Amino acid sequence: MSEKQQHEIGKRKNAIARVYMRQRASEAGTIRVNDRSFEDYFPRPTSRMIIMQPLELTSTVGRFDIHINVHGGGLSGQAGAVRHGISRALLDVDPSFRAILKKAGFLTRDSREVERKKYGLAGARRRFQFSKR
Question: Which CATH code fits 6-104?
Fold first, then answer.
């Protein structure tokens, strides 16, 4: 493993996360999101769980200092983007993680997007209320 910083990009919906990962400098690795603490930025426990999944799967929790810049979308999409970026950065650290992360589906960009609204409809598929008379 090299001492240099790993940099990867993760995407989900309209969120884009730039993940910077380096060997930990302190006794326990820290995760900072947009210059805020990880717990402060993602108050929902499910979002925090999603982000920690690749680290727990590869048994690397606390081994890295991770700095993340994320923008676009909502908190759920941002959490997915961060997970994607961390997974890709872990590959740069140790290519042997590929089989584990690939099997869990963390390396695949989740391509589901919001369906566009169509004319003549209330939303993408929802129709306006029908009136017989």
Answer: 3.30.230.10
